[in-house]
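Give me the fold.
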Amino acid sequence: DTEAVIFNKKAAISIGGFDTSYKFVADYEFFLRMGLTFDLFGSEALVSKWRVHKGQASQTMEMIMFNEGNRNYFKYFHSNYITTKTRVRMILNFGKRYLKKVLFAWT
């Protein structure tokens, strides 16, 4: 699963750019803020590929990424911009992530 993203530079600067307090999920948090401020477009077209290997940060720093992702959920869950429907989706997604983490920890 990979993404290729293009943003207007002025729009990115207007929301404060990347939050550098995140080590691995700064882009995800950035996308959330962009989505709260601007309309986004998504496409199913294949525009990029990436290689997965055991030494990459997303594999070796999995727990840090998990914790940073949780921080994002809690940060935006109580936002005035989030609808009830979105909150329900966030709860389900968080539950899925948590169960996956617990189940895979036992294997």
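The chain has a mean pLDDT of 80.
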